[in-house]
Design a protein that fits this description.
5 helices, elongated, single chain, binds FE2/S2 (inorganic) cluster, alpha+beta
Length: about 160
């Protein structure tokens, strides 16, 4: 039996498109997105659920994609950083640029997806709420002050 024989086919709605993908049952959602679907905007940092670099939205809710298997998300709707922009930067991405909220940029896709979830949850109304809600997203460059400012600005524009 080859490795291919052990693979299963799952269907994900990724950024609004139905995608069928064959994965080993042990493949994380993160690896399915990056390695199988070639959506490399989602970053792998720790692989242990501790850094938030791999944050995506599943059915509109924030998750760390390194801690869930692709197979567990069969049939679900996944939004990655590639789905945020609509031909131009969305308001959160634009706010990150405007507020100089990244340095190396490695954590930024996860920060932006986490911010999108936080704003949708209606939990971005103050700096302390943003800090708490984004506490699972680490930035080794230490851009936190500007990240909070960017999220606050993006949340304000959305009226939350
Ligand atoms: S790579 Fe998933 S939380 Fe760090
Ligand atoms: S901008 Fe470099 S890790 Fe956050």
């Amino acid at each position: 039996m080859t490795n291919d024989d052990k693979e299963i086919e799952i269907t994900l709605s990724v950024n609004g498109q139905q995608r069928r993908v064959r994965v080993d049952p042990r493949t994380t959602l993160l690896d399915a997105l990056r390695d199988r679907l070639k959506l490399t905007g989602t970053k792998k940092g720790c692989g242990l659920g501790q850094c938030g670099a791999c944050t995506v939205l599943v059915d509109g809710r924030r998750i760390v994609s390194c801690l869930t298997l692709g197979a567990m998300n069969d049939g679900r709707a996944v939004t990655t950083i590639e789905g945020q922009a609509e031909g131009r930067l969305d308001r959160i991405q634009a706010a990150f640029v405007e507020h100089d909220a990244f340095q190396c940029g490695y954590c930024t896709p996860g920060q932006i997806m986490s911010a999108a979830g936080l704003i949708a949850e209606g939990r971005a109304s103050s700096d302390s709420e943003i800090r708490e809600g984004m506490s699972g997203n680490l930035c080794r460059c230490g851009a936190y002050t500007n990240i909070v400012a960017a999220v606050r600005a993006a949340a304000g524009e959305s009226g939350t």
